[in-house]
Amino acid sequence: MKPADATPTTVPTVHFVLPGDVDDPAAPSGGNTYDRRVCQELPRAGWRVYEHPVPGAWPEPGAAGRAKLARLLGGLADGSVVLLDGLVACAVPDIVVPEAARLHLVVLLHLPLGDETGLAPATAADLDARERRTLRAVSAVVATSTWAARRLVAHHGLASDRVHVAVPGADPAPQAPGSDGASRLLCVASVTPRKGQHRLVSALATVADLPWSCSCVGGLGHDPAYVVRLRALIAEFGLGDRVRLVGPQTGEDLEASYAAADLLVLTSYAETYGMVVTEALARGIPVLATAVDGLPEAVGRAPDGNVPGLLVPPGDLPALGTALRRWFDEPDLRAQLKVSARRRRATLERWDMTSRNLAAVLERLPQATRRSA
After folding, report:
1. Residue 83: beta bridge partners?
2. What residues contact residue 62 under an 8 Å CB cut-off, 6+ apart?
3. Which of 146, 136, 147, 137 is nearest to 166 (CA)?
4. Exposed, middle or buried: residue 309 (CB in 10 Å: 0-12, 13-18, 19+)?
5. CATH no. for 184-345
6. 238-270 pLDDT, tens digit each
């Protein structure tokens, strides 16, 4: 095993258990980005990080993934500090809970398992129950928004002093030049039912009389059947030349998509925070989004109190269409939202603060247990 940073042996050590696809360019996600940035930043906050990717289609990894996780946890010294991605930890309490008596386990929860859209009720209930067993057993839980922390406390009956918040950071970025100021729309999200791109397409059909184009950037492999249905819906509305599913993007390609965008659109059913929102705001791009879960927290407010975007009720498709038409038809509104988005940039937390908040959680664990390598 190779530590993430070569530092003296006296520094505290954390073992970070990650999904096996954390670095897969074909499956970018907010959770994977968060995990990778934490691995990079925690050493700067004084922690040595050992990374442990565990293969498998989490949260249901199959026998090989389960066995790998069991061997990994079982092989760590008593008192070791272990940070586990919730996607790996929460569905396997039979593996995790027995180790909680001798290891200091901290679960980083990006999205409650039962909140995934499209699950059968029995499946969602089962995942929810497994997650509850895991979270009640571990030393601490880290949520990625204040909204998510409150929900975990209420929903799973957790002690509030065991649930902490480390909001995702946003890197400083140049202001996006955009296009003509209105017509280039961008949606950055995996193409899945939870992200609700079908609602976006239906709303866009109501403003088909106006000039616009929309690029949907995100992985296409998580739910192929949904992608097929979405393409059919785009064709049904005659929007094939205006709505493009461009697949996943990273690096310069993603930067180019942000640079060309006038408005970020996100029509999710569930979001504990919404990292793409702050990525857009870091570039001064206003946001149109469903006001679901932690998304309003990510959108936030500019220092003058104005919201740098339009938030619509998650179940109100007509309101989504109305908000889109307002964006195109009201230049004064667009100007106001752009000013607020630029001002919001200065208030966004950076990744170093995310890692300092996470390090503070780890530092609350007993001193003697934080030095095992």
Report:
1. 16, 106
2. 56
3. 146
4. buried
5. 3.40.50.2000
6. 999 999 999 999 899 999 999 999 999 999 999
The structural domains of the chain, with segments of one domain joined by +, span 13-169+350-368, 184-345
Evaluate the omega torsion of the peptide bond into residue 59 and state whether it is cis, within 30 degrees of 0.
yes
| Nearest Cα to Cα of residue 260 among 245, 280, 287 | 280
Assign 1 a pLDDT band (cuts: 50, 70, 90).
very low
Architecture of the domain made up of 13-169+350-368: 3-Layer(aba) Sandwich (3.40)
Q: What is the pLDDT of residues 129-138, one digit of tens each?
A: 999 999 999 9
Residue with tokens 């959108």: 299
Cβ proximity of 242 and 212 under 8 Å: yes
* CA 367/CA 48 separation, integer angstroms: 15
φ and ψ at residue 127, rounded to 5 degrees: -60, -40
Give yes or no for a cis peptide into 331 (omega within 30° of 0). Answer: no
pLDDT at 373: 36
Instruction: State how far the Cα of 291 lies from the Cα of 297, in Å rounded to an integer.
Output: 9
DSSP, collapsed to helix, strand or coil, labels residue 339 as helix
Q: 3-state class of 285 per DSSP?
A: coil
Determine the Cα–Cα distance for residues 239 and 113; give it in Å rounded to an integer: 34
Residue 259: count other Cβ atoms within 10 Å of its Cβ.
18
In the beta sheet, which residues pair with residue 216?
A: 187, 245
> What pLDDT digit, counting tens, does each position of 201-232 carry?
999 999 999 999 999 999 998 899 999 999 99
Candidates 260, 214, 216; CA nearest to 239 is: 214
**Res 9: pLDDT:** 55
| Coil, helix or strand at residue 194 | helix
- Hey, do 13-169+350-368 and 184-345 end up sharing a CATH topology, with the first three levels equal? yes
